[in-house]
Amino acid sequence: MKLDSENFPLRPAWTEIDLGKLRRNLQLIRRDLPPAVKLLAVVKDEAYGHGALDVARVAVEEGAWGFGLSTLEEAVHLREGGITAPLLLLGERQEAELEWCVTHDLTVCVNEPHTVRKLAKKAAEFGKQVPVHVKIHTGMSRYGVRWDEALPLIEKVVAEKSLSLEGVMTHFSQSDETDKSFAKLQLARFNDVLHALEQRKIYVKLRHTCNSGGYLDLPHAHLDMVRPGILLYGVFPSQVCRQLPGIEPVMSVKAKIAAIQKLKPGEVVGYGMRYTAKTERRIAILPIGYGDGFPRVRNEGCALIHGQRAPLIGGIAMDALMVDITDIPQAQMWEEAVLMGKQGHDEITVRDIAKLKNSVTYDVLTNWRLRLRRKSVNSHTESVKPHLGTAATK
Ligand SMILES: *Cc1c(COP(=O)(O)O)cnc(C)c1O
After folding, report:
1. What's the average model confidence in pLDDT over 308-323?
2. pTM here?
3. How many CB atoms are closer than 10 A to CB 92?
4. Which domains occur in the chain, in start order?
5. Residue 160 and residue 128 in contact, taking contact as beta carbons nearer than 8 Å
6. Of the residues 33, 90, 170, 238, which should be mutated to test ligand 1's pocket, given the most ligand atoms within 8 Å of the CB?
7. Pocket of ligand 1 (CB under 6 A)
8. What are 130-167's pLDDT values in tens digits?
């Protein structure tokens, strides 16, 4: 029996990816955007832990123009999975990667002249004209050529016959906070570059700047394409940005009760005896721990069982954590608990977990370990578009 075969028994702890909700989020975003603005779905880091190939397949059906990725492996993985849409590699490439980019029809972001020359040479070798996006740093001081030094690099790209200047882009360092002044400065610097290009009659098909925060809050910055990541997965980049109604989290984390213990007053729980029962207690053991990416908390946080909050007690272990189910007497072995996500009318949000971790939602989504297998659900909901009178005869 193979590990990836359908009847291999899943561990009683897993991440659940609701592809129906992903589809809905994509539809809501697509509907909110002006039709002329393209959508580049950012699926780096396994689509923020959701599984890049599954996410890309749904996103293609929902009108994504292409995908944003971080590493060569991620891009090759999508190509080998049959994704033919444009794949834009964000960040910088090592010289040895360029041939792979050319042979796999990947779109490269260029930040500096050496890469432009080497990429042009490789493209010519393979008889191809390769699209590139010039990344312009407008204040974030990460990747990209400085805004006030960008023109010569762009002209170099234009001068190379085996390259085509498809895009110019920048990235905001703060787009989802109430104070938009730095984002506005960055946009002004970017617009200066665009203006200079116009004067030189250099035409660029795709000018793009917006991550999720920019897309939500800076409509003037949408230009030709937006690059949302976290919002696709149903998590808002901040609590003060515009809220798009109907957006829902795609990922949940679940586990089944794998043991139940009764405690007498004075008995202790877990490593380090971090919890002592004051009265009789009934506790459930969930087979998930910090080795799966759950924050290493003690006596903090909770799980949802029968739609009720069961507080976490003691310190969490590598493979297990304990919750108090005294007030949920109906809870039984192998019933489902939700560690992140909805159950009944209650919800433990990604932000709740981020607080336990002293971190951000991005970190929570991407840091569930892979031994927590991903279970995709609802991959086919709402995908049926009404084509009247066709295909219905089968
Ligand atoms: C990660 C990333 C995005 C997406 O950011 P979100 O905040 O997740 O929407 C967009 N553009 C670039 C260049 C990125 O690196």
Report:
1. 98
2. 0.94
3. 16
4. 33-233 (3.20.20.10), 251-377 (2.40.37.10)
5. no
6. 90
7. 42, 44, 68, 90, 171, 211-212, 227-231, 237
8. 999 999 999 999 999 999 999 999 999 999 999 999 99
